[in-house]
Design a protein that fits this description.
This protein has about 240 residues and is mainly α. It has one domain (about 1-215). It is built from nine helices and two strands, in the order H-H-H-H-E-E-H-H-H-H-H. It has helices spanning about 1-10, 10-40, 45-65, 70-75, 90-115, 130-155, 160-185, 190-210, 215-244; strands spanning about 80, 85-90. The chain has a two-stranded antiparallel sheet. Strand 1 and strand 2 (about 85-90) form a beta hairpin. The longest helix is centred in the first third of the chain and has 29 residues, at about 10-40.
């Protein structure tokens, strides 16, 4: 309790909290885009529930990982060396998550381009994605994004209460934004392709990070913001033509 009061009176702690909240919210955008696209493929009555469960799993994973910070920090220690780079558990998890995102985004783009793309390995012969397969896929990406999120938090502050508050705020923002974002994506088909392009780019960045090639996040989100701005202008243009 004394430690909490000391942190509350420390301006540095408040600055770290504000910075970490912004970072966690930004990192959560990737996760939220994936959850929105995936759950939009479910029947309408299951979509909101799947989003709540997916974001709830993200919260549970992140809080659980915060309780094992000592183990999480060790995930960055090299296990073996190949191609001149020491690979850690974090690297392997990022590479696996990146490959999954690249595969998933590529498959979804194929689904939107090809009217008869064939069955998904998660879904068998069914054309409709099942609730369970959606949750499994969300859980896999939640794990990757959660580990990256917690390692980022550990690199910014040593105080666990600050990390917990930042995670709670970020996940709350995700929860509030999930349904409006999903409705927006569903109502604008061209945005779906743009969002899938974002996921493809994020997957490649995760793979690059896993191989030791650091890509500044500012470049990634600047590109996403610019693309989003251009798509917004296209939407305004199409709306103006419809009203003429």
């Amino acid at each position: 309790m004394d430690q909490l009061f000391a942190l509350a009176a420390d301006p540095t702690a408040w600055a770290a909290l504000a910075t970490l909240i912004v970072m966690e919210v930004v990192l959560g955008i990737d996760n939220l885009i994936f959850i929105s696209i995936l759950t939009n493929k479910l029947p309408a009555h299951q979509q909101a529930r799947a989003r709540r469960i997916g974001i709830g799993l993200a919260l549970i994973l992140r809080l659980g990982l915060l309780g094992t910070i000592a183990i999480i920090v060790q995930l960055t220690e090299p296990l073996f060396t190949a191609f001149g780079h020491g690979f850690s558990w974090r690297d392997l998890i990022l590479i696996a998550g990146g490959l999954f995102l690249v595969w998933k985004a590529t498959k979804e783009i194929h689904h939107h381009v090809d009217p008869d793309p064939g069955p998904d390995i998660f879904e068998g012969e069914k054309a409709q994605m099942s609730f369970a397969s959606a949750i499994v896929q969300i859980l896999l990406l939640d794990l990757v994004f959660s580990i990256d999120s917690i390692i980022t938090a550990v690199g910014m502050t040593d105080h666990v209460p600050i990390m917990v508050i930042a995670v709670l705020v970020a996940v709350t923002v995700m929860l509030l934004a999930a349904n409006p974002l999903a409705r927006f994506i569903q109502a604008n088909p061209t945005v779906v392709m743009l969002a899938l392009g974002f996921l493809l780019m994020i997957g490649m960045v995760l793979i690059a990070e896993g191989f030791g090639a650091h890509v500044p996040k500012g470049y990634i989100y600047a590109a996403m913001a610019f693309s989003g701005l251009i798509e917004g202008l296209n939407m305004l243009s199409r709306r103006a033509k419809k009203t003429q």
